[in-house]
């Protein structure tokens, strides 16, 4: 009975829509020349007017959590950086790199298109209890500024037997990108070789597989590293204290 | 009978080349006014699986997938809203905590699988939460419909008034 009440009540709710579509002509900028400019196409697919702000942030990926660490920057000229889009209107935003002309390696950024909240000052309704949930949208694009011939070079720089925060035995991998461009690893196959007490690699016992933790996507920015803990494989003896892992 | 003879008179090689722009799109349909549901919030827990509070669609044609973050202005609480602003000194009767579940809706095409339940259920918005959609993508995601379900525990000691939160839906490529 109670579930029927919920269904009836939900039918009475209002359904405004907020739709934001963002297309970037190319996610990699050059430091100079025509390719230092890129177009961002921003479309309001909703039935109401929306106010937007466009800005850029520098991006570092935390090596253990994988979460972006962002900082506001002024290395891009963004025009216009504030938009008021009518329903179904599209506007082109031009982004121009105005940062250093010489870069030793690729730099990573986020281009953010954020809806501004214009509705908070509504009058409170004169009812016993009311609940309102407002929704804002934000579209975040990856962008890179790269020197010519930037290239990634990712290797396993360290593999160790470790204990996770939850007390489980795991293999902790350090994936290091010594190259000058980012690399997106996807469904990464590794070769695991147990090492005996004398330090000898037991190559006849090695095998290749994709650990669950590397089944998704890992973005390793230029000259950075990521540390990934992978579950102890079922077919690896618990007595093993050292492993060698390669890509 | 019609016979058509076509003679090609060109020579050399062609190198067809085309770029597809990287698209990232999010359409949010929030059920803004939950007023009629609130009396139930005061008396009862939400039903198992939660109450739908927003439907949204995402489109993304990046082969590496995308991630969705949810950020609550009031850190996972519906907070009493007085004279155009949230109450500044929040007492126990001024808020009700909630968690969210992210569910696949019926519409559109999702490029891969939904994240595991532990990654998308009972999401606590006291901090920004991140849900990754990056596994084994075979195709682009086109207007994939996702539903956001809200869970609360009954809280009878709430003050009367308007309760509100602002959720920011963030879609990002990788």
Which tags fit this structure?
heterodimer; A: 247 residues; mainly beta; four-stranded antiparallel β-sheet; 1 helix; globular; B: 174 residues; six-stranded antiparallel β-sheet; five-stranded antiparallel β-sheet; 2 helices; elongated; disordered N terminus
Short characterization:
With 247 residues, chain A is mainly beta. Helix content of chain A is 4%, strand content 51%. Chain A has one helix at 2-11, and strands spanning 18-24, 28-29, 37-44, 50-61, 68-72, 76-79, 82-85, 90-97, 107-115, 129-145, 154-163, 169-177, 183-186, 190-195, 207-209, 217-220, 224-231, 242-246.
Structural class of chain A: mainly beta
**Element-by-element helix/strand order of chain B:** EHEEEEEEHEEEE
- How would you characterize the largest beta sheet of chain A? 6 strands, mixed
The N- to C-terminal Cα distance of chain B equals 57 Å
Helix content range of the residues of chain A, please?
under 10%
Estimated radius of gyration of chain A? 25 Å
Distance between the termini of chain A: 57 Å
Order of helices and strands of chain A: HEEEEEEEEEEEEEEEEEE
Query: β content of chain B, as a range?
Result: 35-45%
Using the alpha-carbon principal axes, give the shape of chain A: globular
- Classify the helix fraction of chain B into a percent range: under 10%
List low-pLDDT spans of chain A: 1-15
User: Could you give the count of β-strands of chain B?
Assistant: 11
- How many H/I helices of chain B? 2
- pLDDT averaged over residues of chain A: 89
Structural class of chain B: mainly beta
Q: Characterize the biggest β-sheet of chain B.
A: 6 strands, antiparallel
Biggest interface and its residues per chain?
A-B, 58 and 60 residues
Number of helices of chain A: 1
Q: How many DSSP-defined strands of chain A?
A: 18
> Which residues of chain B sit in consecutive blocks of at least 5 with pLDDT less than 50?
1-11
């Amino acid at each position: 009975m109670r579930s029927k009440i919920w269904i009836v009540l939900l039918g009475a709710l209002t359904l405004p829509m907020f739709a934001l579509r963002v297309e970037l002509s190319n996610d990699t900028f050059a430091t100079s020349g025509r390719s230092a400019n890129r177009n961002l196409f921003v479309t309001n697919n909703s039935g109401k007017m929306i106010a937007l702000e466009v800005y850029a942030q520098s991006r570092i990926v935390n090596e253990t959590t994988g979460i972006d660490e962002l900082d506001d920057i002024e290395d891009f000229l963004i025009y216009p950086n504030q938009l008021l889009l009518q329903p179904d209107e599209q506007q082109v935003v031009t982004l121009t790199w105005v940062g250093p002309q010489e870069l030793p390696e690729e730099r990573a950024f986020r281009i953010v298109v954020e809806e501004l909240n214009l509705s908070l000052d509504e009058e409170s309704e004169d009812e016993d209890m009311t609940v309102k949930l407002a929704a804002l949208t934000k579209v975040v694009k990856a962008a890179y500024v790269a020197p010519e011939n930037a290239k990634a070079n990712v290797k396993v720089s360290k593999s160790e037997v470790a204990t996770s925060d939850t007390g489980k035995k795991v293999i902790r991998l350090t994936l290091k990108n010594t190259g000058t461009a980012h690399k997106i690893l996807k469904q990464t196959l590794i070769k695991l070789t147990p090492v005996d007490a004398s330090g000898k690699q037991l190559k006849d016992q090695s095998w290749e597989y994709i650990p669950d933790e590397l089944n998704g996507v890992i973005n390793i920015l230029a000259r950075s590293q990521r540390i990934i803990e992978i579950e102890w494989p079922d077919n690896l003896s618990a007595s093993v204290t050292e492993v060698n892992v390669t890509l | 009978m019609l016979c058509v003879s076509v003679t090609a008179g060109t020579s050399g090689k062609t190198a067809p080349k085309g770029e597809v722009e990287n698209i990232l799109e999010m359409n949010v349909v929030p059920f803004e006014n939950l007023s009629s549901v609130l009396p139930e919030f005061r008396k009862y827990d939400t039903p198992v699986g939660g109450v739908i509070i927003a439907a949204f669609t995402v489109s993304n044609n990046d082969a590496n997938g995308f991630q969705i973050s949810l950020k609550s202005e009031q850190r996972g609480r519906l907070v009493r809203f007085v004279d155009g602003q949230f109450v500044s000194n929040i007492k126990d009767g001024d808020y009700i905590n909630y968690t969210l579940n992210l569910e696949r809706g019926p519409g559109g095409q999702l490029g891969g699988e939904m994240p595991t339940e532990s990654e998308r259920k009972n999401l606590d918005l006291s901090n920004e939460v991140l849900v990754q959609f990056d596994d084994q993508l075979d195709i682009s995601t086109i207007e994939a419909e996702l539903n956001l379900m809200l869970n609360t525990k009954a809280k009878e000691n709430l003050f009367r008034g308007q309760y509100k939160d602002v959720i920011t839906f963030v879609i990002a490529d990788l």
